[in-house]
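Course assignment 3, question 2. Fill in each field.
Student: A.L.
Task: Predict the tertiary structure for the chain below.
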Amino acid sequence: MKKQILILLCIFLIGFVNASNISIDYPDNVNYGEEFSVDVELIGYEGIYDVKIDILNSTGDRLSEIDNNGEWRSTHYYVEDAIDTSSSNISSFSLNITQKYEGEANINVKIRDTSIDSYEDYLINIDFQDEDASSITYDPVEIILDWDDEDIINGEEFEIEIYIENLEDEDYDLKLWIEFEDEDIVISDRYDDNEDEWKSGSYYISNVFSGPGEDEEKIKLRIREDYRDYEGWAIIYAKLRGEETFDEDIEILKQEEDGDDDQEEDGDDEDNEESNNQDIDNNPVGNTDNEAILLIRNNDNQTEDIKTDNNIIYKSKNQYIKEYAIYGFTFLCIILIILLLIDRK
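Answer field:
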């Protein structure tokens, strides 16, 4: 009987352990400026996953670039759809140390689908040979802009995230502004945290970024009052003093009128009440009054719960295991105690 109990306990403990893990293979030593490979194998994963491989020094600065779908990019970015376990659970990634550094560094790996799993502190040694420092060339400064499309509303403040690569060891001033597509007219103001005031996008903000390496910052913008009625496509520009100008297309959304919102809400009250009642009657899960439970389909064509009021957006299989495994473990312990007592009698 005791042997059978031990077997049951072992089987349960195997299922209790989080099955998802990774295995990575990489060289112990790499040289500055030389390409090398990192192999990532997914264990216990099913589906299509994005992969991010960072190589960081002790202060968290990124030291490398990665071949991201045929283009060398900062390891700040994920390689999207990098591993599809339906065909293979392993993939090889090419990296290159692009920052002057010598010594031990950390490799951090992130696996992303609907959630993110992090695996950190794999150690790698970087060698830097400074035999001819004059022959070393530095990559030009690169600016990357990012924002939430739904936030770019005329009449409201919105944030632009700015990510800078390949900075020298100095401070940088930034100018950030928006113009019409076909006219060289600045239509935006930007907020200066240093001076605690709004100014035209024509002016620089002092000492926004610091090198060497990379840096990032968020800047608040708003469309100027003179152009309050504008909606449509425009161009956003970013420029570091003394460097090239970067630009991207950006869409300015019209602010919704309060009167229209109130009228729409009043007109839809009865429809919403009827729709809510119908949803409650037809809900196959049997939800309570204080939470709405919807059903979505995951990659395996199985349904998962979304609880909007409780802010539970998605539950993966691993999350279900983590939540309910403790109850199963408690129940199994009770059964084992009962069996032991019976065997002793």
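Instructor remarks: Residues 14-18, 275-315 have pLDDT under 50 and may be disordered. Residues 180 and 234 are 5 Å apart (CA to CA).
Grade: pending
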